[in-house]
Amino acid sequence: MGAAQMDRSPRTATRDYDRDMDDSDDDLALDYSPEAALYTRGADGIALSPRGPQAARRPDDDDNDDNEKGGLSVYVTIHRIRRLLIASIDEPYTLDQLRAPRMSSQVVRPLVDRLYNPNDLSTVYCLLANRVQFLRSQSEEALHHTVNIARATVCELVAARILRRFDEENPGRPGLLILANILVSGFDAFDTAPEPVRRQSRSHQWPSQSRPGHERKLIALELAILSESKILIGSLACQRVVEAVHRGDVVYTPLSLVDILPDHYHYHPVSLYDARRAPILNHRRLIVPQLRNLIELFHFAILLGLYVLTMIHCNSREYGTRRMTVYEVVFDIFAAGWVLEQFAAIIEHGWEVHAQNLWSFLDISFIFIYVLYGVVRMVELLIADDVNYALPILCIAAPVLLTRVAFALMPGNIVFIALHALMREFTRLTFIAIWCFTGFLLGLLWLLRTTLDTSSGMPSNENTPSWATIGKWLLWIWFGLDGTGLERTAEFHTVLGPALAITFAFLGNTFFLTILVAILTNTFSKIMDNASVEVQFRRAVLTFQGVKSDAIFSYPPPFNMIALVFMLPMRLILGPGAFHTINVSVIQVVNAPVLLLIGLYERRRVWARGMPSLSPRKWHHFGLSPTAEIQLVFSSEPPPDVLDTLEKLDTLDTMPHHQVGERKSAEAEGRTSVVRRRKPSNGSDVLY
Question: YVC1 N-terminal linker helical domain spans which residues (predicted)?
Fold first, then answer.
C-alpha cells in the first residue's frame, strides 16, 4: 500500500516543479518511461505525441462507450454538454446554491462523473464554450435570463472539477504537460462536424490567415478570460499551468486571428522547455510572459525618459518655428514604434481580452494624445509658422505616462485592480450622464433663443451667454461649485429657466452622484471580498497576453516599423520557408544582446540548482533557523513502514466523506494532504 504526498499550495507546486527540472537527462527519461508512447522529445523540450490522449477524440473509436475508450469530437461534445445543461438546470440557482452540498451531489458531481474522460482533453474547452454561449444568450433571451446565468455557472464549476481531477490523477511533469494541453492547446469548435454544417456556418465569417492546420482554433484559457471564469482560473490546477507558462517552463505556439507580420512556417506544440537543449539565441524566448513583461517595461522606461527629455529641452520659442530638437525627433520615432506595438497587441487577441489589462485605458489615452499631437505637429511644420499648439497637447500625456508606471510596476496590487474596475464603471456611467444631460443644455440654449426672438428689449450681444457658457454653468452645478447658473437662467425665462436648472441640479448633483457612489462602492466591496481570486485572474490575463503570435513583437521599437516596411513586402515575394529563415536571422541579429543574456541566465539557473545555496531560505540546513526541525519533518514523505503504522492506527476508509473533506481542506489552507491510492476495476491509479 503506497501513499502520495500532494502539495496543493501554488508556491510548493512550483518548487516541486523546480525540483523536477533539476533532473538530468537520464532521470528525465525515467520520468517518462512508463508512458513513453505518449511523449516525444523535440528540439528544446518534451511534448505529447500524436498518439497521446489529445488524439483520441474520434467518434469511430468509441464503440458506444465514450467513458472507456477515447472521447467524442469537439463539435459533438459541445452540443452534448449543452443538452445536458439544459436538461439539468431549469431554475435560477445562485453560485452559493450550486456550491451547496445538496446541489453539488445531485447536479454538479453527476455531470463531472458523466463528462470526465481521461482520454479526452477537450472537455474543459467545450464546457467553457458553452459558458460563453450561455452568458451571451442571457442578454438575448429575457425569459431565461437568470436560468442561463445558472447554466453558465454550472459549466464553470464542472470545468474546474474536471481540471482538478486531471491534476490529481496525473502528478509530476507528465501531469503538467497534460494540464497545459488542456488549457493552452488549440481546439476547433467544428472538429469532425458535418461538412454542410461547417460550410454554412463559416461562410459568414471573415477569412482567417493561413496557419498549418490551426486556423480558427481557440484555447480554453482564452475562453476562461473572455467569460471571466474566475473560479476556474483561481483553481490550483489552472494556476499551476499559468505559473509554468509565465516562467517559460511550458511553451507553445499562440493562436490569433490577425497578425501584422505573420510567420507561421513552424508550429510548435505545447511542450516542456529544457534550456539545456535549446539554442543559445532562442528567439522564441522573447514571447515568454515573464521575460516579455520585463522587455515591455524596459521599452516603456525608454519612452518615458525620451518624453521627459523632450519636454525639458523643448524651448517654447524654438518650438513655435519649424525646427525640431534632437530629443523630439528621437521621441517621435520611438513613440511611433511603441504605438505600433500597442496596436498589434490590441488586434492580437481582440479588444475584449486586451481591455482586461490593467493599464489598457492608459495606453489608449496616450495613443490618442500622441496621434493628435502628431497631426497638429505635422500641420505646424508644413503649413503654419510661429504657432504653438502641439506642445500643450503633448503636455497632457504626463499624468497618463506617470500613472502607467505605477500600474506596470505593481500589476498584482489589489488597489490597482480595483481602480481598473472602478474606472470602467465610472467611464460607462459618465458617458450615460453626458448623453442624458445634454438635453438640459439644448433646452436652455433653445429657451434663450426663443426668449431673444420674442422679447421687445433684446439684451446686448456681449451679455448673451453662449452654449459654452451655459455648459460651464451646468458643470459647476453638477459638481456643486457655483450657483451662478441658477440665478442667470431667470434671464432665459422667469419660470422655465430656473425650473430646468433646479431639475438638473436635483438629477445631476444629488440623484446621479448618489447612484454613482453606490455602484462604485458595491464594485469595490466585491473585489475586496475576492481579492485573491482577482489577483490570480489578472495574472492569468497578463500571462495569456504575454505569449505573442505576431512576429512584429520580436522587433523592439523602432525596429518594428523598419520590419513592417521591409519584411512585410518580402513575405509576399519569398516563400514561407525562405521568409521564415530570413525573419529568424534578422530577429536574432537585432535582439542578439537580449537573447544572449536570456540564454546565459536560463542555463545558469539550471546549473545553479545542483549547487549548494547560502540564501536565508537554506539556512535551516545549517541549523541556523529556529524552526529547522519542524521544516525538516515535513520536507520528505514518511517511509513505508511508518505509513503502514499510520494506516493501522487510523483507517481512512472508515472516515465519512474523507475524500471531499480532505481535498477541500487542502485547497482552502494550502497545506500538504496525504491520501491513499487504490486500484479501481479498470487498473488506473486514482486518488481515494
Answer: 77-253
